[in-house]
């Protein structure tokens, strides 16, 4: 049986047995937080447990490396919507040790893409359309600089509500230990002083 059919079979049982009832909540985050983190599989259950988050506590946005690459892309749009329309009041960017985006080489990735059968013409079409694939497919030198850069882009966004704390953390993907990279409260108080 295929993966999708296994999922659908499980889902039928899940709904029939009303297992969803333990997860019922509203669309508004109880802890008034929007969280940007990595899509790493080790964080699916570990990160919410390590942060004491239950279903309904936070808006969680995931991508490769918890990276905000541009201030007017989908990630930042989601953060702005969460802050203005969904009652989030704080932002946390959580990167993790051993991230696959650390040292990601765009040229190597583009080579893998072409070796998989994507024609060079498709790559050229994107480049001719003004897409900087090298920038778009680049990770970061280390997780701390990646978190700091994403936090900086969010903090400096012209649409970010004034006095929104934006925090940066790094999680150990094995133990769940969180290290504070930048405290949004301290940052805001230093701007006032």
TrEMBL record:
Catalytic class of the enzyme: lyase
Catalysed reaction equations from the record: hydrogencarbonate + H(+) = CO2 + H2O
Pfam families documented for this protein: Pro_CA
Keyword field: Metal-binding, Zinc
Statement: the UniProt record of this protein carries the keyword Metal-binding: yes
Cofactor: Zn(2+)
E.C. no: 4.2.1.1
PANTHER family tied to this protein: CARBON DISULFIDE HYDROLASE, CARBONIC ANHYDRASE
Sequence similarity: Belongs to the beta-class carbonic anhydrase family.
Protein's recorded name: carbonic anhydrase
């Amino acid at each position: 049986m295929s993966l999708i059919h296994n999922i659908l079979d499980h889902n039928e049982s899940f709904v029939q047995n009303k297992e969803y009832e333990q997860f019922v909540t509203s669309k508004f985050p109880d802890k008034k937080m929007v969280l940007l983190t990595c899509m790493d599989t080790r964080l699916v259950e570990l990160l919410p447990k390590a942060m004491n988050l239950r279903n309904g506590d936070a808006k969680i946005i995931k991508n490769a490396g918890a990276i905000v690459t541009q201030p007017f892309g989908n990630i930042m749009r989601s953060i702005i919507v969460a802050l203005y329309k969904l009652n989030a009041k704080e932002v946390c960017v959580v990167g993790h040790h051993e991230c696959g985006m650390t040292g990601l080489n765009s040229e190597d990735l583009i080579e893998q893409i072409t070796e998989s059968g994507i024609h060079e013409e498709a790559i050229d079409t994107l480049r001719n359309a003004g897409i900087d694939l090298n920038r778009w497919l680049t990770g970061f030198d280390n997780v701390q600089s990646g978190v700091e850069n994403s936090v900086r882009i969010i903090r400096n966004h012209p649409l970010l509500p004034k006095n929104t704390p934006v925090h940066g953390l790094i999680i150990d993907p094995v133990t769940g230990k969180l290290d504070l990279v930048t405290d949004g409260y301290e940052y805001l108080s230093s701007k006032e002083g």
